Amino acid sequence: MPAARRRGRPVGGGGGKREEILAAARRVFAAEGFDRATLRTIAGAAQVDPAMVRHYFGDKAGLFRAALHLPLDPAQAIGAIVAAGVDGLGERIVRFFLTVWDLPGGISPFVAFLRGAAGHDESRTMLQEMLDQVLFPTMAKGLAEANGTAPEEARLRVVMCGTQLVGLGMARYVIGVEPVASLPVDRLVELYAPTLQRYLEGPLT
């Protein structure tokens, strides 16, 4: 009799199957959104067993991070940054994003994804999903708890911060606008942090 198949372990596949799953995940996340997409649907699109998806990526959040080329869990990282309080939050946020984007010796895979998002509908939709479903809700919840602002106001404040960060990312890594493209991280933090801090706790009128 053939040996029993162990649960949760993929048979065959290798790196090629992993990339096929990621490609399918990007299509499904772009079409369905993070909330509606399921591991079963993605597995079907990649023509693999759902156990193989779980083996490589653990859960839907892990698969989403991998599809976006994120080196860490953005919700967890941003949650910890916001939990430290509003004082100095603008500086911590700018430094965090620049640290993720600027890898020693080269550009991070997420920056390559950001470049692709400028002219690729699927990538752009996934980037929007990350902002709307992961980063903005996490930041807004933390900000509302930290300074007692209403959820709607907290959401507006973090979205305004997000526009600054997306603009910085596009100018520095996609378009290559000088001198922003070549300024040291510390100088960019010095320049951008006060604006983010004003959005976070200053008047909105």
Query: How many DSSP H or I helices?
Result: 10
Level-1 CATH class name of the largest domain: Mainly Alpha
Span of the ends, CA to CA: 75 Å
Structural class by SSE content: mainly alpha
What does this structure look like?
It is a single chain. The chain has 205 residues and is mainly alpha-helical. The chain has 2 domains: 15-67, Homeodomain-like (Arc Repressor Mutant, subunit A, Orthogonal Bundle); 74-201, Tetracycline Repressor, domain 2. It is built from 10 helices and 2 strands. It has helices spanning 15-36, 39-46, 50-57, 60-67, 74-83, 89-101, 109-117, 121-147, 151-175, 185-201; strands at 102-103, 106-107. A two-stranded antiparallel ribbon has the order 1-2. Strand 1 and strand 2 (106-107) form a beta hairpin. Helix 5 (74-83) packs parallel to helix 8, helix 8 packs across helix 9 (151-175) and helix 9 runs antiparallel to helix 10 (185-201). The radius of gyration is 19 Å and the shape is globular. The chain starts with 14 loop residues before the first helix and ends with a helix. Residues 1-13 have low confidence and may be disordered.
